[in-house]
## 1
Amino acid sequence: MTPFSFGGELFGMWTWLDAVVRVVLVVTAMTLVVMYLTYGERKVVARFQQRLGPTKTGPAGVFQAFADALKLVAKEDIRPTNADRWVFELAPYATFVPVFLVLLVLPFAKDWGVRNLTLGMFFVFAVLGLNIVGIIMAGLGSGNKFALLGGVRAAAQMISYEIPLVLSLLAVAMVAGTLDLNQMAMLQADRPFILLQPLAFLIFFTAMLSEMHRAPFDIPVAESEIVGGYFVEYSGIRWSMFQLTEYASMWGFSVFGSVVFLGGWAFPFGEEWGWGWQLALTLAKSIAWIMAIFWIRTTVPRLRIDQLMSFCWKVLLPLSIVQLLANGFILVYDWPQELLTATSGAGAVALITIIIMRTARRPKNKYVGTYRQAGVTTS
């Protein structure tokens, strides 16, 4: 039994004290991870853009995250006069708590975590949907039309992309035969599910970016679109809670996706080499996942709102349904597992082809004639 294991009580303490200690440990780890994710993103994006990023606060700017935290705590907390006080003030908590609950069921190593649930994946589905409530509260309670527009756009986007996200995870659950995240990791000790379900992986990764409002799906919070989105009226510590939510969800999604698709702590040699190697595997896979998110942010342009919604309903949703049906036929008739890879791989190729065709196609500009009449040259 490990000190931070799923079974038993931590250090033999009472149940309530055990729960408090576990929650404090998760909050502390989450806060430190979020602080250095913000620093890491600024450094990585700066390198992509041929800049240096933070350099002044500490060696190579490593204390910049602490300086930013102190600044946000010290800043004045302003509430607009026409804002709904209780809705406005409770919205940051309503967005943060669901993300925090996801972290409570993630296995970071074998029997290492806060709590193991038999229906762990179902629990993640359930609590992630609650995040939309806090976003609507922030947009509606601010008394600002731009915040309201950002909240409505964010809610529409999250509800839409949550459907293919859930369907892609259900496809993996059908193959695994369980919703227990710890068991799911152990089933991938020899072969991760990304090899059996590459299409489900691509759909999940894309929908995950949309759920977190990361580029190229960041239109609900884009400063150039709607001056910052649903939290435009927030400042100081309340604004920092939205930032904490974003980066905590990035970390949670990275660990969760690593467990579901990349074998989590079990692949490769996780059970043979002990808990130290398991923690290293989880750390390495989550860092690789986060680096992919940073990379996409710097290289893929933002989608228009019509492009964003049509991509979900016309591309991701049909492909996720086809993937689910294909898995059902293969598993019900007990066909070889190689067919899972073949059908899902064909769907992944189709998805990539559609993306390439859509991005390579030059859009028709219906205003070209108007521009020429006005003497404007278009290229």
## 2
Amino acid sequence: MTNEEPNEKQTKKHQTNLVSAGHAKSIDLEQINGSGFDFYSANSDYIGFTMVNKNHEIVNYRNSSTVRIWYNEQLETFPLHWHNSLEIVLPISDCYYALTGETTNRIQEGEIFFIPPGTLHSVYPPPGSNGVRFVYLLDLSVMTHLKAYAGIQPLLSTPFLLTKENSPDIYKDIFDLLMQMQVEYFRKNLYSELTVYSLLMTMFVKLGTDYSNKLGTADIRAGKQRKYLKQFNDLLAYIDDHYMDALTLESMASLMGFTKFHFSRLFKNYTGYTFCDYLNYRRIKATEELLPHVELPITEIAMQVGFSSISTFNRLFRVYKKCSPSEYRSKLSVHTFKKG
């Protein structure tokens, strides 16, 4: 996403009714950022177009950083692509659309849409829109070495929409953190990148805690939550490192010190997945980085990520991606699209 050249919108005060998103008052960017705020020069290093190699967008972060935030008011449709960044879309005025898989997501003013890394998607405004939205592109590789990061991977397994209605306990906090991020970014403060990531980590803590609380069973809430959170965070980190191995429900239950039945129940409560479904999801996700390499046979890719049967791989890939591995690969093309 990118900015248009500065024009009369640059100094316009944007106010949007956000009653549906839970705000008593409208989003007033002048109140948040200050009057005459410059949303443009922070991204003046942008070269004007983006290379998409096999549908993989090579994100141009600002000045060799790991962050790019766009104040976006464009009418263009951005074609199907994916990237290694977490993308967050927050419309300020008018709605915005995101096509993910076979689902068209309408993101209303003030709602927050998360597109996990590796997700094929297309984004576009409604016809004739004069709307504005913030688009955040954040490289999560700087955080993945943290053991606790594995605990939020189930949350980031699919795109999701955060609203006041579906997350009343944390919506305002997440909205405020995103507003702080864009203020730091566009002001180009000396430590803006570091500040953005500190805010992002705070956001993940809130999202992860809320997610775990919603999934938690009564006995977890009664006093075992902290213990189980640590155990399952460690387990998800282990799966990240060993998903290509012959992991079984029995071996993971033994590793955790639980009976198979107790482990199955707790794993589903904690992650929202059965163990088998989560392991398959993690393996399929690993193929997203391998399928663009056309020199690798699909059978080899299946074996490399841990599937012992190509037929099982093909069947599960279709379940998760709504197409076959070869069809997914055929969608990949080399092109560029202009973002400015």
## 3
Amino acid sequence: MNDTYDNINVDPEMTVMNVHFKDPCGRSYFDIFKEKEDSKEISTRGLRADATLFDEMIIDVNTMYFERKGGYEYAKVFYEEAFRFAEKKFGAENVISAVMHADEINIAATEECGHPVYHYHLHVTAIPVVDKDILWSMRCKDEALRGTVKNVIHQVSHSKKWASKQKELDENGQPVLRANGQPKFVKSYSLLQDELFEHMRNAGFADFERGEKGSTARHLSSLQHQYKKDLERCHELEKSIEAKAIEYEAASDICKTFSEIDDIGTKRTLTGKIIIENTEFNALKSLAKEGVSGRKKIRELEEDAAFYRRRYSDLSHSYRSLEKDYHELRKKCEPYLTAIRRFPEKVMSFMDSILEHIRQERERNEQNKSKETSGYTTAKQKTAKDKVHQRKELER
């Protein structure tokens, strides 16, 4: 079981959204392997000490495929069918773990779509098992049994499980040969892709695209998408560097101006008086005027800067306060948000029932108010009639 992640794009808060089609229930893979071996479900007969005991199948589709189809809910349906394919390949009893990861955010797709987009993929861990015929030896007393099948064991063997028997053909349909003249066989990885593609298409996923033939790269489409976005970021950084270079050039011109000012008045007469030429004198006058006006502008800018610093401080304080309120509110609402993500239909049905209850309660309150108002009006009218009757009696 993997509790730590080298992938920095994993969002721990979204781990609860992972879907376990086959859960080892806290047991280690080796414990499960030992249990199966002890119960004779599998056999390690002829197994090398360094043999592969577990195979991992990663079924992965381009992130935007699910984004177009409906996101998380569609991915669950898709990968549940992919899990059935894995059971078919390994044998359901040999699959130890199968989990759809929904906690890995795709940064490039998120920036493109403007909302969090997660990269859904299926991890399957299984024991590679093949059926091996155990034959009666030639020393068997019963000659009729010699060389026949004695029993069948479920042997753990990665090499036999994925041994390819399909010859690789060239464009003319002829077998491709190795340097030693032996035929080449199609890689089992490529055959597995073909079988998965056919299985998913037969299951109704007609627009599901097969991985690139002959490629051994994983997550190829997603990496291409990430590469494109990273390239765009590089171009933005280049523009920023160019802008900084322009600022540096402007600053270098200022430094050169300071140097020229320092050189003014270096010429002196024999008596020590400073000689300033007309061009230098006019330049000094211009610089003096610019300095006076510049000091005024600097004061104005300092006042503006002080105002904006105070403004920033106030807004920063307000932001921290709002951020604290937001996190407290999110913490309180987390059960509700989790329920929406996992059971959206049930939550909507529940909310509809609450709104209906509120509507009915409001109607009852309005009816009660109407009755009270009507009763008050009737009593008031009765009191007025009694007063009129009393006045008439007194007049008589």
## 4
Amino acid sequence: MAARPSDRIQRGMSKRDLGSSAPGRRELLAYSAFFGPAFLARQGLAGTLAPAAQASSPSDPVRGMKKSINLWAFPYPDKWSLRECFQIAADAGFDAVEPNFNLEGEFSAESSDDEIRAVKRMADEAGIAISGVCSFLFWPYSMTHPDAGRRAKGIELASRMAEAAALLGTDNLLVVPGAVYAPWLEDPVPVSNDVCERYAKQAVRELIPAAERAGVSINIENIFANGFLFSPQEVAAFVDGFGSDTVKVHFDTGNIMQYQFPEHWIPILGKRIKNIHLKEWDKRTQEFNLHTFRTLLDGTTNWPAVIAALEGIGYDGYLTFEYFHPHQHYPEALIYQTSDALDRMLRRTA
């Protein structure tokens, strides 16, 4: 007569008894990362985490993709000038830099066309390209803000950003279409989901003519923590809904890593992806804020899988490291470390 389940429990089940129903190595590693190995050991599971063989990877360098870095990783303008930032990025081996459009300063809403052209000349003299235009202004001047004046100002600023991108010689403009809630703002004003979607669509429709005149793509960024466009399917539907080749995707690997995985998003978004931010995230960190992002390779992102997914869709654009905390001491170390990490991710090192 077959043993009853209760009998087996009382006698104890061996690991062989568990068979294929036992958790696999990757699942156990995830438990270990979250709860810690000591906790796992107390559950009698740690012994199943035997060292795994090193997975083989292609040896040929990745073709087409180019290295870029956002200026937030530099101590600009506190310690370095814009010219110094461009030169150090070039010296570190980057192909391009992504500047941030501000309210005031060398590259800002108060800059004339000639002043923006001067920024382009500085980059040319340093031997570095401009990979795209980014801006924090999409938060204080959200295009889905409850205040109509704020929304109008946001659209006005975004239109000027499109013109500025063209003057810099890039056809990439990162656009945050809206937010239900932005927890990193001092006094965030929540917006209901349906209103956020309506305002966001209206704003992008208003931006399309300006972007078309400038020859610049409106690249919608996925942000997850802003409560809007939670999945790749939602992003794809939002972008496709405009029926315009001018509206594309600026895909950010780190902005979804708290609960999802970039290698899953990339095949779904496919050719819609026009530009990319690389941000590192560590899934052992549960609370989200702008300090939880890490330097490249110091996290849990499966970079070989991400690069393979990008190769799978034929992506040949920029990979831009975005980081908000330049090093207080020896800030050039972060720039060179990032360049080296990208070389390894792109299989450019021996």
